[in-house]
Amino acid sequence: MEDIELLRLEKRRRKAKLKLFGLDVVPNRPDFNKEGLADVISLRILLNHLVACICISDFDYQGFDVDNCSYPSRLIKSTWGDDYDIALYGRLGLYCHNFQKGTNFKFVRWEKYDVISTADVHFYVTLDARDPASDSVFSFQTLLCEDSSTNFPVRWSTLACRIKCDDAVDERWDDKAVDDFYKDALMPKWLSDEELASDNKKYYVVQESELQENDWLYLFTEIAFYSKTNNVLTAPPPLEIEKVVVVTKEDTEEGHEKLKAQNAIYYVSYKYNGESLEWARDHKAVIRKTMDRKPGHMYLEVVGAE
């Protein structure tokens, strides 16, 4: 009886919070009796439902600073860590923001992060970024969703990339805004020399000087190598890009403008120049980038092409 009463009290408390969010709906389950009360099992099911609803409601608003999917809610503390994977997530968010806003923000270090697992894994990352134009350092937020698998070592989508604020996050990806050319369930195969020579307007070979001007190509390559090593790297590896070919359906007058395409496929040849003999060889990666035209939204898919 004591257990039932405690559950009933918890039910009332959480139902009041649900009503605040307009989510005061009782699950339609056959094990609820006519009086609207449930046995212990049903009450536990109801409480799980209430927690899930509250968690989803708070999910967008405070995931960077407050974890409302734990009970009780907890503040996410600043740890100023050096985990390499979290730094990659933050740097990718900065690239997305720079690409969309025309800025040139640089990654300094990450301050804190939280991980929330639903169908995918969401990383809420807060970091320090620097604006070279003013030499100012400020707080920046990135929400990255990871949906990787064996066939797709990297399936990362940024859903928020912004200077720190309390605005809600728009997590809905607009798949209709992306051309079907980029939606193939299988990643494109590696380009043969014959294909590359057959249509030099369709394929653009990035020039050496452009590699330096577009340092995000090194970030993409770094992500490709990170996934290839089963995500065990703890620091940026010494990589050398040998060749990048860009393919996009977007209209461009000049070949180099393909580097500014929102949606594109990159064929990257590179080599590892570090001390590990296991990886000291040439590598290839196919990278597909798509955007749905929403601020802060970008989808990156990477596979090796050995």
Automatic annotation (TrEMBL):
InterPro entries: MS5 (IPR006462). It holds the Pfam family protein_MS5. PANTHER family: BNAA01G07080D PROTEIN (PTHR31260:SF44), CYSTATIN/MONELLIN SUPERFAMILY PROTEIN (PTHR31260). This is Uncharacterized protein. The lineage of its organism: Eukaryota, Viridiplantae, Streptophyta, Embryophyta, Tracheophyta.
